[in-house]
C-alpha cells in the first residue's frame, strides 16, 4: 500500500465507512478504479482493509486524492477474529466522481446548471478563487454516478452518501421515490472530504450528548476533552453546523459529564454570509475578532463565500447592540461594502441613506463617509371608502387619539382620498404582539363585485365569501352590508438582521403580501434586488416583475428563465419575509411592458403547488434557509 498515506473512519449505525487518502501524484489511480473489480489497486485495497481492520464491519470504501473524492465502492466483510483473516467480498460496481472538460462558450454558471448544481458548489469543490475558467480545463464535478443494486432505496442511498432523498430526486429529475435495479443515479459529494483524517485508529469509548442553546462543536469538544474533527467523524458531519436538540456521539476520553468551566459572557450567533461580507467586516459588526470567528468555525484562511453559514462569537452586550441596530452618526465605507449591505447592517432602507446623503445612485466608493441617523418610523395611508379613524388606528397599532394629534385633526371625521400620517411602533407596519382578527363593514356600491373587494381589502375571495355566507354565484345589491375580515399579523423575531420572518402562508404571509401588492425581492446570495407585484394565486404568490429593468436583474440572477429555486427575502412595507422563488414566466400575464409574458412563483412557509395542492420540498428548503432555521 505504498500509494496510501492516511486513512479515516466514519462510524455508522451498522458499521463504518473507510476513507483512504492516496498520494497526489498517483494520477492514474482514478482510471485504475474505473476498470474491473479485479484491478491490482482494488485487490490491494480489499486485502489491506481486511487485514488492517479485521474487527470492523466495513460498508464502503472512499478513495481521496488531493483532497478530492475520486471514487467509492461498496464493501462487504464479515467480522473476523483477529487470528482468522479471509478475503473480503467486494461489489464489482465502482462509483467515480465526474469530470468535465471546459469547452468554448462555457461558464461556471452554465456548467453548474447542466449538473443542477450551484456555481459556489463547483468553485468550492475545485478550490477556485474566481469564476474564471479556460478552455480545456478539467473540472471535478461533486457528483458520483451510482448504479442501483438489489436492496437499494432512496433513503438507503441518502444515508450512505450523507445527503437527503429530496436532493437525489432533484439531481435526477425524479418525481417519486421509486428506483429500479440497474438504474444510474447521480448522488452528491460533500466538498469537505479534504478534512484531515485521523492518522491512527483506535476504538475509543463513546457517549451521547444533546446539543444545548449556545453550543458549538468547538465548545463541546473542549468540554469533553476531544477535537472538533473527532466529533464530526463520529457523527458523519460534513460541516460544523449543529442544532439545538441534536444528539451527538462523543468519542475519546469522556468524563461522566462535560466539565463545567466558568466562561466569559459570550453569545453565539448563526449568520449567513451575504454579498459584500468579509471576516473583518463581520468581526467589526459583532464586536469580535477575525481569529475568534476563524477558530469558532475551524477556518484555515480568511476566505468566506456567499451563503456560507458561520457561527459568530460575540459578547452579550455586542449582540444586544447588533439586535437593537445602534446607528452611528457616520460610517466610513470599507472594502466589500455595498449600499444595501450597509442599510441591512443598521436597519435602514437604501432609499433613506441615499436621501440623507444626496446620492443619485447606489454607487459608493472606498473611504467615503456616509451620514447615518435613525430612520423616521412614520408612514402614510390613503383613506379608502368605508374606513374609520378607529379602524385605521387599530390596524396599524396606534390609537385614535394619536392619529388625531399627529394629523392635527379637529375631529375623527375623515374623507376618502385623505392622506394620513401614521406613527408605527418600532418602525414596523404594525405593533401587534400576536396575530388577531377583527372585522369592518363595507357598504356595497354600484359596480362592486366580490373579486374586486377581496383585492381591495387584501383577503382571499374565498374568505370574503365565507365571512358573508355567500357563493361565487351570489349577487350583491347596492346598500348591502358586507363583513370584511381584517388580519393583524404580528411581526416575528428573526434569527438575525439578514434573515426574514418565517411566516406561514395560509394564516400570515398571504395577508402581508396580498394580491395587488408591490414588493421588493432580495436575492439572498447576491444581494441584488428587483420589484415585483403579486397579481394572482391562492396556493402561493403568483407574481410579475414591474419593469423590463426588474426583469433583466432577475434574469441575471437566475442566468435566464429557470425553474430552479433560490432563497430570497421579500420586503413588504418595511417587513422582510423569508421566501423562495423560481423565475420561469408561465400562464396568465397582467403587467404589461415588463419584458416577460406570464407570471412566476414565490413560495412561503407551507404554501403549496397549484397543480396538486402539495408542498414543494425544494421551495420549503430554501425558505428555511432564508429564515435561518436550516
Please, could you describe this protein's structure?
The protein has 630 residues and is α+β, with helices and mostly antiparallel strands. Helices cover 24% and strands 25% of the residues. It is built from 20 helices and 23 strands. It has a 7-stranded mixed sheet. The longest helix is centred in the N-terminal third of the chain and has 13 residues, at 40-52. The chain is globular. The chain starts with a strand and ends with a helix.
What layout of secondary structure does this protein have?
Blueprint (H helix, E strand, L loop, with lengths): L3 E9 L2 E8 L6 H5 L6 H13 L5 E8 L2 E9 L12 E13 L6 H7 L4 H7 L12 E10 L6 H7 L4 H7 L12 E5 L18 E4 L6 H7 L4 H7 L12 E4 L15 E7 L6 H7 L4 H7 L12 E7 H8 L6 E3 L6 H7 L4 H7 L12 E3 L6 E5 L6 H7 L4 H7 L12 E5 L12 E8 L6 H7 L4 H7 L13 E8 L16 H8 L5 E6 L5 E8 L4 E5 L2 H11 L3 E11 L2 E9 L16 E4 L13 H11 L3
Parallel strand pairs: 2-3
Antiparallel strand pairs: 1-2, 3-4, 4-5, 5-6, 6-7, 8-9, 10-11, 12-13, 14-15, 16-17, 18-19, 18-21, 19-20, 20-23, 21-22, 22-23
Helix pairs in contact: 3-4, 5-6, 7-8, 9-10, 16-17
Amino acid at each position: 500500500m505504498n500509494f496510501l498515506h492516511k486513512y479515516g473512519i466514519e462510524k455508522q449505525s451498522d458499521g463504518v465507512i473507510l476513507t483512504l487518502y492516496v498520494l497526489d501524484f498517483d494520477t492514474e489511480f482514478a482510471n485504475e478504479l474505473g476498470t474491473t473489480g479485479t484491478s491490482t489497486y482494488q485487490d490491494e485495497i480489499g486485502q489491506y482493509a481486511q487485514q488492517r481492520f479485521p474487527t470492523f464491519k466495513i460498508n464502503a470504501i472512499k478513495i481521496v486524492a488531493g483532497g478530492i473524492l475520486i471514487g467509492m465502492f461498496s464493501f462487504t466483510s464479515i467480522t473476523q477474529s483477529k487470528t482468522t483473516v479471509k478475503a473480503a467480498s467486494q461489489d464489482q460496481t465502482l462509483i467515480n466522481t465526474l469530470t468535465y472538460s471546459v469547452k468554448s462558450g462555457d461558464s461556471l454558471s452554465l456548467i453548474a446548471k447542466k449538473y443542477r448544481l450551484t456555481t459556489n458548489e463547483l468553485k468550492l469543490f475545485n478550490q477556485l478563487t474566481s469564476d474564471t475558467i479556460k478552455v480545456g480545463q478539467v473540472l471535478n464535478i461533486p457528483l458520483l454516478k451510482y448504479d442501483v443494486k438489489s436492496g437499494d432505496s432512496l433513503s438507503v442511498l441518502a444515508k450512505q452518501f450523507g445527503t437527503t432523498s429530496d436532493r437525489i430526486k432533484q439531481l435526477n429529475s425524479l418525481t417519486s421515490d421509486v428506483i429500479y435495479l440497474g438504474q444510474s443515479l447521480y448522488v452528491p459529494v460533500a466538498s469537505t472530504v479534504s478534512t484531515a483524517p485521523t492518522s491512527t485508529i483506535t476504538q475509543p469509548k463513546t457517549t451521547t450528548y444533546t446539543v444545548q442553546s449556545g453550543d458549538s462543536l468547538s465548545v463541546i469538544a473542549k468540554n469533553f476533552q476531544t477535537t472538533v474533527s473527532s466529533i464530526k467523524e463520529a457523527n458523519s458531519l460534513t460541516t460544523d453546523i449543529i442544532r439545538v436538540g441534536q444528539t451527538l456521539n462523543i468519542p475519546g476520553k469522556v468524563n461522566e459529564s462535560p466539565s463545567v468551566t466558568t466562561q466569559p459572557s459570550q453569545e453565539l450567533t448563526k449568520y449567513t454570509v451575504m454579498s459584500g461580507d468579509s471576516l473583518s467586516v463581520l468581526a467589526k459588526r459583532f464586536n469580535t475578532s477575525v481569529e475568534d470567528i476563524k477558530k469558532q468555525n475551524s477556518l484555515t484562511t480568511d476566505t468566506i463565500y456567499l451563503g456560507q453559514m458561520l457561527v459568530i462569537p460575540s459578547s452579550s452586550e455586542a449582540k444586544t447592540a447588533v439586535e437593537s441596530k445602534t446607528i452611528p452618526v457616520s460610517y466610513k465605507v470599507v472594502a466589500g461594502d455595498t449600499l444595501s449591505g450597509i442599510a441591512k447592517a443598521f436597519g435602514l432602507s437604501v432609499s433613506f441613506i441615499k436621501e440623507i446623503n444626496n446620492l443619485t445612485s447606489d454607487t459608493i466608493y472606498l473611504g467615503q463617509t456616509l451620514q447615518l441617523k435613525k430612520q423616521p418610523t412614520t408612514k402614510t395611508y390613503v383613506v379608502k371608502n368605508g374606513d374609520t379613524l378607529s379602524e385605521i388606528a387599530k390596524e396599524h397599532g396606534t390609537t385614535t387619539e394619536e392619529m388625531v394629534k399627529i394629523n392635527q385633526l379637529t375631529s375623527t371625521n375623515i374623507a376618502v382620498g385623505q392622506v394620513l400620517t401614521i406613527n408605527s411602533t418600532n418602525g414596523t407596519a404594525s405593533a401587534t404582539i400576536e396575530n388577531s382578527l377583527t372585522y369592518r363593514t363595507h357598504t356595497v356600491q354600484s359596480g362592486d363585485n366580490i373579486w374586486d373587494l377581496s383585492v381591495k381589502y387584501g383577503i382571499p375571495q374565498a374568505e370574503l365569501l365565507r365571512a358573508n355566507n355567500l357563493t361565487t354565484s351570489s349577487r350583491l345589491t347596492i346598500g348591502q352590508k358586507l363583513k370584511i375580515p381584517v388580519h393583524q399579523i404580528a411581526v416575528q423575531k428573526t434569527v438575525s438582521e439578514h434573515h426574514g420572518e418565517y411566516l406561514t402562508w395560509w394564516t400570515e404571509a398571504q395577508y402581508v403580501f396580498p394580491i395587488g401588492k408591490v414588493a421588493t425581492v432580495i436575492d439572498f446570495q447576491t444581494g441584488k434586488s428587483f420589484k415585483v407585484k403579486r397579481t394572482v394565486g391562492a396556493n402561493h404568490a403568483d407574481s410579475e416583475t414591474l419593469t423590463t429593468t426588474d426583469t433583466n436583474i432577475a434574469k441575471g440572477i437566475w442566468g435566464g428563465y429557470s425553474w430552479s429555486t433560490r432563497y430570497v427575502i421579500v420586503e413588504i412595507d418595511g417587513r422582510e419575509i423569508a421566501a423562495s422563488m423560481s423565475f420561469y414566466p408561465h400562464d396568465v400575464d397582467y403587467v404589461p411592458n415588463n419584458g416577460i409574458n406570464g407570471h412566476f412563483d414565490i413560495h412561503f412557509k407551507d404554501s403549496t403547488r397549484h397543480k396538486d395542492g402539495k408542498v414543494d420540498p425544494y421551495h420549503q428548503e430554501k425558505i428555511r434557509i432564508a429564515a435561518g432555521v436550516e
